[in-house]
Amino acid sequence: MTFSPKLEEKFAALLTHYPEGRQRAALIPMLLYAQDEVGAITPELVEEVAKRCGVTPLQVDEVVGYYSMLHRKPLGKYHIQVCTNISCMLVGGEELFEHACKKLGIGHKQVTPDGLFSLEEVECMGACSWAPAIQIGYEFHHKVTPEKLDELIEALRKIQ
Amino acid sequence: MLYNEPSPLEVRVLTRRFGLPNSASIDTYLATDGYKALEKAFDMTPDEIIEEVKTSNLRGRGGAGFPTGMKWGFVPRNSPKPKYIVVNGDESEPGTCKDRLLIENDPHQLIEGVLIAALAVGASRGWIYIRGEYRYLIEIMDKAIAEAYARGYLGKNILGRGFDFDLHTHTGAGAYECGEESALLESLEGKRGVPRIRPPFPAVSGAFQCPTILNNVETFSAVPAIIRDGGAAFAALGTPKNGGTRLFCLSGHVNKPGVYELPMGFNLLRMINEVGGGVRGGRALKAVIPGGSSCPILKAEECDLPMDYDSLAKAKSMLGSGGVIVMDETTDMVKAALRIMKFYQHESCGWCIPCREGTTWLKKLLTRMDEGRGSSNDIDLIADLAKNMLGRTFCPLGDAAAMPTISIVEKFREEFEAKLAASRTQSKFVVV
Question: Which of A56, A74, A93, B19 is an S-S bond match for A39, by CB 3.0 to 4.6 Å?
Answer without folding.
Answer: A74
